[in-house]
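S.,

Sequence below, as promised.
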Amino acid sequence: MLLHKGVQYERDLHGIWIDRYFAEKQGIDVGDNLSLICDGTAFDEIVMGIMENPDHTYFKIDDTYTEPDIGAYGYAFLDSGDYPGQDFQFDSMYIDLKNVTNQFELTDADKREIEKAKSEIQELFKDRNITCVSKKDDGGYDSIHSDLDADETLEIVFPCLFISIALLGIVSTMTRLVLKQRTIIGTFKALGFAQETVFIHYITYSVVVCLMGCITGAVAGWYSLGIYIFDVLKLYYSHPFGRMELSSRVVIVISIVAAMSAMTNYLSCRGILSLRASEILRPEPPAMSGAGFIEKTPIWNKLSFASRWNIRDINRNRVRTLAGIVGVMLCTALMLTAFGMDELNKGVENWKYLRLTPANFEIGFTAGTDYNTVYDYSRRFRGQMVEKVQTDVTKGDEIGLYYVTVMDKGNLYMFQDGDGNFMNLPEKGAAVSSKVMDEMGLNIGDEVSFRIPGVRDKFKVRICDVFKAPDEQGIAMKREYFESINGEFKPNLLFTNMTVPKRYVTEREEILSVFSKNEYIRAMNLKRAATDQEVYYVMTIAVMLGIVVMYNLGILSFVEKIREVATLKVLGFSTGNIRWILNQQSIIIDGIGTGLGLILGKTILIFTMDNIDYSTDFIYKISLKPYLLSVFVSFVLSVTVNAVISSRAKNINMVDALKGVE
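The prediction came back faster than expected:
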């Protein structure tokens, strides 16, 4: 234990050591006298210390809680000599394996060693009702790792997209900056400034601007989303060393962005400085290219002038066009990923509690409750009995801790396939969840084995079907099949639509928990709050980055086409016609980028949700809403930005635009 205040525990020392969070919430301090009841015996103890224990990092006192409520209940340590009852018995044993050196990040060798010891212990006590739980399967350890894995997945996916879009914005911004100062660079060269001096000037400027933006973004992220997620996690985990720290990855990302900015300016300046000063001082000549593929086909003669002009412009400026498509594609992919995550996360509530388990109440029974007792409750509340246990499922060398579910007849606990269609469990055999099938490398027809805690024999079942489960991954079978392989049906759950009094938990020894559907939904929504906030944050940043990238690329394109636009005005084209020609090209580029972005976004969405938590799964059939929202936002941004840019055609300085390149 970690002592926060008071006297360190030593063997045979009298007194009690109290959980810090419970002590703070209940106003308990060192030296206080507590009146306690244990095993029906009342006694008093003096608080000797306030402490924390790592086994209670993620702490639910029992199954009457759907999620941790730190401080509402607590734990305490008492020397065995102070136990007030008559018959003191230990109910658990901790075993430290000498060949396992890691404590949190277990290696594959550590896991193999743990599984080996676990199998030996299970074989030694196979005739006893003993549960052996390895560290990696402990609820607290598993919960922390699941959240860390989810955060790590988000840290990979979204930063990569953000950085890609940001780098595209940096390239377009810095290229535009250098082109805008072409005359100044030519003047520097004409006055005799060394190339290194010009390089240092523009590279320093770009790096300083990028560093200012990166640092501002890091600070904003720390005090907005960072603190919010940290505060949410503190509701679920008690950790004495829990604090926010600056990750080295932030420094790496800032360094990459700054280096990319410096490289962009260097290449842009080098391209200009390779020319003579007289050439630099003149406006850049338009890009030249030969006839494109379409121009050689009969279709060309049937196209309008605007279409021909845009096709030729795209052919002459392929890099710029590709950058525009990639920018729109990444922004659309980011938005579809965010909108899709939002819909899938919110859809779990309806999928699990309205379709798969439509029962209004769930009764949990204590271990050892006999079948007749549960059956009587099922008759009284017209419910469906289910036996669900967590145990090791093995196939050859593959082993995993999963749920084994045995179903009695009823329609309050259902299963669906990968397409979201309701399915029946096999008559002869078992069904496996899609997630377990992938993790264990199973195929239809394979045999897996498992052991029910307290039962000596192992059971072998054949996999005959696959189902999708939002959580609690494992295998499921009908009661009749389980009994046909000599299994004894011992239901520990009852699902019912009738109202079950909550007081049963305290009044009846056989009842462990009573949960309503609304309690589960409320707990799920609270747990999902941090993810929802991350999604909204991503949506906002996606829109902001989209505006910046589209505006910069649009301005860069307009500057490169300013001579052509001026020529069109000289030829008598109205401002409205010119704006339509410019917007037509933008619509084509945005359309291609949006289409590719939807494909990329769906791929990123599936990858993200598949890796966000190994115990959760989804049916990846999102509605048209995320697609339409992504297309709508992308096109609204594009049309708005291009409308602003094309409006500049009205105020072009004809003399400056047409002079210099005869």
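Residues 282 and 660 are 6 Å apart (CA to CA).

Coffee later?
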